[in-house]
């Protein structure tokens, strides 16, 4: 899979562009030395698949975090709740099977109270006859009119009841409608219309989920412990001694508000970034700061800091102005540091939610020199399914090398392979297979004019951890 981002070469400039203007300074161009870098993924921006144990101590309903996608099936009617037309009208319990309209995204208000967002992004609520509707577009967490208490069965946590804002429980009627008029007392049996089967069909495990899941006070201590232990000074020493020349460090937009970022994010990541720059300079490593999470989310994925998968970055001038302010903050803080090599303006903006027009407006409001950052994975696409090891290697030498050649034109932008990994969709591949596949990628990606960066330094999945790959002889730099 290929995705594209852009970097600003900060060292090209002697001044910064004002946030409110699109006037860009004239750069003094000099060719950089290609880097051999590694991403510090999962450190200052949470990605649960990299550090799943970060979520372990969330005390209650840790499987029901923000953005979790659920379906609700009536015990008595044997049908799923569905937001008619995807939202904007009633919510009925009349579907024998579940798909998009029958899938709801959670907003976690407290450990046991939630708001439910439907396919077209409205929220559950009640009309004046206590019937369940999905018409509210308010994103106010304090709006109790659309907040439901989720009551789980201790013996079967997927057997639930929902206490509605009017104090009664939601029930499915024989005509397929849903309303909140069931009393508190119930036998919770199979004949109880207020009992539903909860089915979790998707989850997000990002920065929003982990911090809101713990709550501010606990999240502060958990995240501080994570930042202080996941990446430490010895890691920079290890990288320096094993051929790495740079680090790509992921940050979220909330870092500029440290130590008191907007809820639910918690302070402390800025100090960790300061430490990283100090360690990088000590061990002669270059630093690429990557804005991995932009205001409003640029791709709806968990690493963008999203709450429930909604992509809204670039759809208003405000989100662009806010993002330029973050870049300006980072540049102002680290511009004079010898370790700073580049700042990545935004990571993996996703079309069609992010348009070329909004990207152009953002880049013009930022700076006038960019590097094309290409992310290469022989994964996440059906074209790689069924490929042999040799076919994966051939794909790198044929397709990837050709693409790089077409991008590296005379007087064109520098090219950076900002993410790649020695992993492929091949069952039972041997150590030698991975060594050959990794060597092929190092050969081809080493031709990029700005260099490359492995994803990532540390990961519970061994092939995704450059530290593990180096220590175990899979990759040699």
Helix content: 10-25%
Distance between the termini: 24 Å
Mean pLDDT: 89
Number of strands: 20
Cα shape: elongated
By CATH, the topology of the largest domain is TIM Barrel
Major sheet attributes: 8 strands, mixed, barrel
Parts with pLDDT < 50 across at least 5 consecutive residues: 6-30
Q: If classified by CATH, what would the architecture of the largest domain be?
A: Alpha-Beta Barrel
* CATH class division of the largest domain: Alpha Beta
Tally the helices: what do you get?
9
Strand content: 15-25%
Supply Rg.
25 Å
Please give the domain count: 2
Strand order of the largest sheet: 1-17-16-15-2-20-19-18
Write structural notes for this entry.
One of its GO terms (molecular function) is hydrolase activity, hydrolyzing O-glycosyl compounds. This is Mannan endo-1,4-beta-mannosidase. Residues 223-370 form the Glycoside hydrolase family domain. Keywords: Glycosidase, Hydrolase, Signal. It comes from Vanilla planifolia (Vanilla). This protein is an alpha/beta fold. It folds into 2 domains: 8-16 and 31-57 and 206-472, TIM Barrel (Alpha-Beta Barrel), CATH 3.20.20; 68-202, Trefoil (Acidic Fibroblast Growth Factor, subunit A), CATH 2.80.10.50. Helix content is 24%, strand content 23%. The chain is built from 9 helices and 20 strands. It has helices at 207-214, 216-229, 233-241, 269-282, 317-334, 356-366, 389-407, 431-445, 466-471; strands spanning 2-8, 35-39, 69-74, 80-83, 91-95, 104-108, 113-117, 123-126, 132-136, 148-152, 159-163, 169-172, 178-182, 196-202, 246-252, 286-293, 340-346, 370-376, 414-420, 451-454. It has an 8-stranded mixed beta barrel with strand order 1-17-16-15-2-20-19-18. β18, α7 (389-407) and β19 form a beta-alpha-beta unit. α7 (389-407) runs parallel beside α8. The radius of gyration is 25 Å and the shape is elongated. Residues 6-30 have low confidence and may be disordered.
């Amino acid at each position: 899979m290929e995705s594209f981002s852009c970097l600003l070469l900060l060292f090209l400039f002697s001044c910064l562009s004002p946030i409110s203007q699109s006037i860009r300074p004239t750069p003094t161009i000099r060719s950089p030395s290609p880097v051999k870098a590694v991403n510090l993924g999962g450190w200052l921006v949470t990605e649960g698949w990299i550090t799943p144990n970060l979520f372990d101590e969330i005390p209650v309903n840790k499987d029901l975090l923000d953005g979790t996608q659920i379906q609700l099936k009536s015990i008595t009617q044997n049908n799923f709740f569905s937001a008619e037309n995807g939202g904007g009208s009633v919510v009925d319990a009349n579907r024998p099977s579940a798909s998009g309209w029958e899938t709801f995204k959670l907003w976690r208000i407290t450990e046991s109270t939630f708001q439910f967002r439907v396919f077209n992004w409205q929220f559950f609520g009640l009309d004046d006859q206590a019937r369940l509707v999905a018409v509210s577009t308010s994103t106010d967490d304090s709006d109790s009119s659309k907040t439901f208490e989720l009551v789980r069965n201790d013996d079967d946590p997927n057997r639930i009841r929902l206490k509605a804002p009017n104090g009664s429980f939601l029930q499915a009627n024989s005509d397929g409608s849903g309303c909140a008029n069931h009393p508190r007392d119930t036998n919770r049996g199979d004949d109880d219309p207020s009992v539903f089967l909860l089915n979790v069909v998707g989850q997000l495990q990002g920065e929003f989920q982990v911090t809101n899941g713990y709550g501010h006070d606990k999240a502060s201590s958990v995240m501080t412990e994570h930042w202080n232990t996941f990446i430490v000074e010895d890691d920079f020493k290890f990288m320096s001694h094993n051929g790495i020349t740079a680090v790509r460090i992921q940050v979220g937009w909330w870092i500029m508000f440290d130590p008191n970022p907007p809820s639910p994010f918690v302070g402390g990541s800025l100090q960790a970034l300061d430490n990283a720059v100090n360690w990088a300079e000590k061990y002669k490593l270059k630093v690429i700061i990557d804005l991995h999470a932009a205001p409003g989310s640029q791709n709806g994925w968990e690493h963008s800091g999203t709450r429930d998968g909604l992509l809204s970055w670039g759809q208003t001038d405000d989100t662009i102005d806010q993002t330029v302010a973050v870049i300006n903050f980072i540049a102002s803080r680290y511009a004079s540091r010898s370790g700073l090599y580049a700042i990545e303006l935004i990571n993996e903006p996703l079309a069609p939610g992010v348009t070329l027009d909004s990207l152009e407006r953002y880049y013009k409001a930022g700076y006038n020199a960019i590097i094309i950052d290409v992310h290469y994975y022989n994964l996440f696409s059906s074209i790689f399914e069924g490929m042999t090891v040799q076919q994966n290697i051939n794909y790198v030498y044929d397709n990837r090398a050709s693409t790089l050649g077409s991008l590296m034109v005379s007087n064109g932008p520098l090219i950076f392979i900002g993410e790649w990994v020695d992993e492929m969709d091949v069952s039972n591949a041997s150590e030698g297979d991975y060594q050959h596949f990794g060597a092929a990628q190092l050969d081809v990606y080493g031709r990029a004019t700005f260099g490359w960066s492995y994803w990532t330094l540390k990961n519970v999945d061994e092939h995704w951890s450059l530290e593990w790959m180096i220590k175990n002889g899979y990759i040699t730099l």
